What does this fold into?
Amino acid sequence: MGEAYGQLMSKMKEIETVGQIQGLLGWDQEVMMPPKAGPLRAEQLAWLSRTSHSMMVDAGMGDALAAAEAEGANDEVAAGNLRLIRDAYDKATKKPADFVERFARHKSKSIVSWAEAREKNDFSIFRDDLAEMIELNRELAGYLGYEENPYDALLDIYESGLCVAQVDPLFAGLREALVPLISAVGKCDTPDMNWVESNHWPEEAQAQLSHGISAAVGFDFEAGRRDKSTHPFCGGSNPDDVRWTTRYDEAEPFGSLYGSLHETGHGLYEQGRPRNLDFQPAGHADGLGVHESQSRLWENQVGRSLAFSEWAIPHWSKHFPQNMEGVTGEMLWRSVNMVEPSLIRVEADEATYNIHIMIRYEIEKRLINGELDIDDLPDAWDDMYEQYLGIRSPDRTQGVLQDIHWSMGAFGYFPTYTLGNLYSAQLLAAARADLEGDETLEDMWRRGEFAPLLDWMRTNVHGRGSILTPAELIEEATGQPPTPEPFIAYLREKIESLYGITS
It folds into this structure.
């Protein structure tokens, strides 16, 4: 590439460095920051956001970008970088600097009030901050622009090109496929959960189990770490510094383990990003839908398989010797796959999980479009759970306060979880076609051999960064555009196997 491109990438490295610092301060806020440091952290993050935004919208950045585009891209990496920088520049120049600072300052404040409200089971503590965050997102949608629905502008932030017109029929199709499955399961016998419910599961042993299994599937703890937080997440600044968290409940161990596997999936993606593209936009993960495909893959399609359960039994027994007496791999498999309507999204089974996402999607649309008043939100949440899943939250902590996303201003994020489910099944089907011969992937997992699948993902997903758009990446890796059919087929086969249902 030419001189102009080189100058552009030098400017981007500075912006990327600021972003990495923001990521580390955000992690610290969730994991280690003293409670009284909240206002200070809000100011620090606001300054960093303002600085990053100023660097992006600077006239010199616009000139450098235009000059680099005029030179033209001579390879796919440069083409990817120019596409991503143009998109970021256009979005940034639409947002006033004072708005960027206000948003960042309020985000930091809002996260703190959400955590307090959740701890005290009191929505009123978070109410005003959430109302302001909704207004900020409406303001953001106005700056970014949209053709049909304000919510479209927010969806596009997290998955390029995503809009209500695409998501509505997607969810409608999933409901049509999933509701009969869930209904059929409801008429079947449930697995024996007594071995789980009658035992105590100490937090320290859960931590050791999740740490060991995360390392076994490939997470490099020399380049990352595990911690405890109110809401599990994965962050950090670079493939050499990837940080994920989980949470614990001593009444049941599945939430922490599978939350850990979920965040490990995110962490594996981050550690697998192309190192020759550090500090370049094309070196980032390719959108949140693809990111969620990796977390859902390791959490569910690998972690909740019979083969994985059979491999994991000795690890469970090591940390919970008395609790696991007489428990077989099949018993564990049936327990971790129990299909049952539940209140908590991150602990939901595969069959009902997307219903949780649909509820949040519908609520977000209504909030952003002014069709749902903030004071009606908690009850509207509970009403939709009753309508879709037949259950109602006994408190706000398990209801409207359970997720961190709205406190962060992440409206439009939730649908990427469903996209991740769909992408993960499609990617796994493609990996099977490439890797299976005399033995299946399950044969490998039963021996604790996860490297072949991870290596395939490293080659076809992680190592491709954001050079391509998400849809292009999925098509390149699988040979077909994104489609829900592999996920529906995978889930139907699994549920039928677990419960003896015939379609």
Observations:
- The two ends are 56 Å apart (CA to CA).
- The first strand starts at residue 224 and ends at 228.
- The chain is about 65% helix and 5% strand.
